[in-house]
Amino acid sequence: MKSKKYAVTDQPRCVACGECASVCRIGAIKIIDGCYAYANPETCVGCGLCSKSCPVGCISLKSREEADRNEKEMV
Amino acid sequence: MKKKWYDYLWIWTIIYFVLGFFNILFAWLGMIDFLVPLIFAIVGGNKHFCNTYCGRGQLLRVMGTHCHCSRNKTTPKWLSSKWFRYGFLIFFLAMFGNIVFQTYLVAAGAGSLKEALKLFWTIRVPWHWAYSAGFVPDWIAQFSFGFYSLMLTSTLIGLIVMALYKPRTWCTFCPMGTMTQTICKLKHRKEK
């Protein structure tokens, strides 16, 4: 069962330091091309460890329900 | 999670400063931290050094998270703003350029060796015990004093912001991080 929330990175603000990836216990976060962090929504459990450790404060937890609703509205 | 050898690189940062306390010529080893991230970024197009091998980042994490030396407060936004990051990078490179220039002056015989550190680019700290004159050409020692000052100053800034904000707040404006991320962005923009 998927978690209610998942991590989302504000990519333009991310400094790609890798702190989030190092604290993520399930390896859901990867640093893409040395430019920004990306949390895989399929594997992220929404524990919030990454958002707490991020020195920039550019990782937030997003509700899956809300995201699904927005996606449906877009369609 | 099982720890790997590179998870202990924070020890290397401590060893580096201890070695420099007894013999300033060890300061040259700091060039590893200067060149390897650039090689990773230019050749591999990644920030693998920052993410995995940065001893300073690890030391800040160990002290801030495991030793609870950090207040864990939100980092002010201006510290990670583009203006501050690039401004600090330019300032840092200018100060590095000054070290190289001072080294050149000593090598050319136009300046004399100053056996002291300059903390925060202003405070003069005697460090004469760490060097025996005549052991190597003076310019090699001059670069060592300058470079060790730069490394120590940046580590102290890192520790101050670690204590005030998040453990790795230094990484938000680290000049090497800014430089390597910019290289990665340019490299991958070209590829796209």
Describe the structure concisely.
The complex is a heterodimer of chains A (about 80) and B (about 190). Chain A has about 80 residues and is of the alpha+beta class. Chain A has helices at about 20-25, 50-55, 65-75; strands at about 5-10, 30, 35-40, 60-65.
Topology summary:
The complex is a heterodimer of chains A (75) and B (192).
Chain A: E1 5-9, H1 19-23, E2 29-32, E3 36-39, H2 49-53, E4 59-63, H3 64-74
Antiparallel strand pairs in A: 1-4, 2-3
Chain B: H1 10-22, H2 31-44, H3 48-53, H4 55-66, H5 82-108, E1 116-119, E2 123-126, H6 138-164, H7 175-191
Antiparallel strand pairs in B: 1-2
Helix pairs in contact in B: 1-4, 2-7, 4-6, 5-6, 5-7
Structure write-up:
The complex is a heterodimer of chains A (75) and B (192). The longest helix of chain A is centred in the C-terminal third of the chain and has 11 residues, at 64-74. Chain A has 3 helices and 4 strands, in the order βαββαβα. Chain A has helices at 19-23, 49-53, 64-74, and strands at 5-9, 29-32, 36-39, 59-63. Chain A has 75 residues and is of the alpha+beta class. Chain A is globular, with a radius of gyration of 12 Å. Chain B is mainly alpha-helical and 192 residues long. In chain B, strands 1-2 form a two-stranded antiparallel sheet. Chain B has helices spanning 10-22, 31-44, 48-53, 55-66, 82-108, 138-164, 175-191; strands spanning 116-119, 123-126. Chain B has one domain (5-191). In chain B, 35% of the residues are buried.
Q: How far from one another are the termini of chain B?
A: 36 Å
Indicate the overall shape of chain B. globular
Measured as a percent range, the helix fraction of chain A is 25-40%
Largest sheet of chain A: 2 strands, antiparallel
Please estimate the helix content of chain B. 55-70%
Strand order of the largest sheet of chain B: 1-2
Euclidean distance between termini CA atoms of chain A? 25 Å
